[in-house]
Write a structure and sequence with these properties.
single chain; mainly alpha; two-stranded antiparallel sheet
């Protein structure tokens, strides 16, 4: 485990030192992904087949391209949101899954599928509402708990809220139509973007890109927000408004991608830790690199999911497996920067 983690860091570290190195790696991965698939030949599609085979060209333009772009955007959003949550809450062990955001989005999407007709816009709105409510509930409960420090309180509160959402989602699965609604909820919870089309990709882009722009433009304020409140407010009295804007952007963008992809775990937790090991804790550097590395990570996992076997592997399973493996490696090598606040 330790050797695998060290190899990963040694491979990515030199490229991360140069902005051009990161961009080159990402562009090569994006372009290469267009030629990876199961048709017309397993694993690699030659350019000649794309030029001569109309079906292969159709698959590339209308199936692979929207899926590849959505996978990359999904990784960018989850990594950016994880970075925001970890800095705003001054807790390096949180991401959307641990503080009720993913659980709320899962319940909201399931509720829309079972009770509200399952229209894509309804699923997206419902997922966004309950995701934000889950975050608000976790934060509020953590402030009222009197045991342990802030890090422990927020984690425990998020676990409790996520468990409640999980129970409610289970109840909806019990009530769902077993032939139509239940399979849709089950596949959604496993995580995957096998059904993404251009309209789906555009719906995600319309919501996520403005949120990412807001987060990116405010990245230099994250350094202030990560300080203790007394110090932060002495430097900038309007930090509460800025914190709310960043949290809203992170939650809405996460809900937008999760409503299409289902639950994709560990990306928002592990990618910021890897980036901090490479370029340090300055949010002006960590946020852009986290977005690129997150997109790269999810895109690689999705390429494996749709190519390795004839039957597709759920994307959420792969991100959990690789993310948890890297996390354990970082723990064993003492490479996690976890400090009590």
């Amino acid at each position: 485990m330790e050797n695998n983690t060290n190899i990963f860091l040694r491979i990515f570290h030199p490229a991360a030192k140069s902005a051009w190195g990161v961009l080159s790696l990402v562009v090569l991965t994006l372009v290469g992904s267009f030629f990876i698939g199961r048709y017309p030949k397993p694993y690699v599609t030659p350019i000649s087949d794309l030029l001569e085979n109309p079906l292969a060209k159709e698959i590339l333009l209308n199936i692979r391209m929207p899926r590849i772009l959505t996978a990359f955007l999904l990784g960018m959003v989850l990594s950016a949101s994880g970075t925001v949550f970890q800095l705003v809450f001054r807790n390096p062990l949180v991401d959307s899954k641990f503080i009720g955001v993913s659980g709320g989005a899962a319940f909201g999407a399931s509720l829309a599928i079972v009770c509200l007709g399952g229209h894509p816009a309804t699923v997206q709105l419902s997922a966004s509402f309950f995701a934000f409510f889950g975050l608000a509930a976790s934060y509020s409960i953590a402030h009222r708990v009197r045991m342990g420090d802030w890090m422990l309180r927020l984690i425990l509160s998020g676990i409790a809220v996520s468990a409640i959402y999980g129970a409610l989602t289970g109840a909806l699965k019990y009530l769902a139509d077993p032939l139509r609604e239940l399979p849709e909820i089950t596949f959604w919870l496993l995580g995957g973007i096998w059904g993404i089309t251009w309209p789906d990709a555009l719906q995600v882009l319309v919501v996520s890109v403005p949120c990412l722009v807001i987060i990116y433009m405010m990245r230099w304020r994250l350094n202030l927000l990560s300080m203790q409140d007394d110090t932060a407010f002495s430097l900038a009295p309007s930090l509460n408004k800025e914190r709310l804007v960043l949290i809203l952007a992170a939650v809405v963008s996460t809900a937008a991608v999760v409503s299409k992809s289902g639950q994709i775990a560990w990306v928002g937790l592990i990618v910021p830790h890897i980036v901090r090991r490479i370029v340090g804790s300055d949010a002006q550097k960590t946020l852009p690199l986290a977005m690129l590395l997150g997109g790269f990570f999810v895109l690689i996992c999705d390429n494996i999911a749709r190519t390795l076997f004839t039957g597709e592997i759920p994307l959420g399973m792969l991100t959990s497996f690789f993310g948890a493996t890297i996390f354990i490696g970082l723990l064993m090598t003492n490479r996690l920067n976890i400090k009590q606040k």
